[in-house]
Amino acid sequence: xxxxxxxxxxVVIALENPLNPEHVRAAQRECGxxxxxxxxxxxxxxQALSRFDTKHEDAPIEFGENxxxxxxxxxxxxxxxxxxxxxxxxPQKDGLRVRFRLDGVLTDYERYPIAMVAx
Length: 119
Known about the structure:
Number of helices: 3
Radius of gyration: 15 Å
Number of domains: 2
Number of strands: 6
Distance between the termini: 18 Å
Structural class: alpha+beta
Low-confidence stretches: none
């Protein structure tokens, strides 16, 4: 999920699946009860976060525990869906790289900001 804008007491937020009640509850915990939900693909959300990271390198990004838990749960779901034999979570200097082993070959899955590693 990624917040898009604030309108008075309401936050406009983009989710990969705004019909998933777990995701909506997580968004409400992080942003408040009054939300306007939008939809965006996972890659669009990660691209937006990457742009934010490069524009705000000096500003620390706060990740709540539930964001990390949700990310790990999604990694596992996607690995099962892809029939991955194993998951590689690799801390690197600039972030966290996740790869799946598919048919014996390590395949890039996703990169996460370094701020998630500190939790």
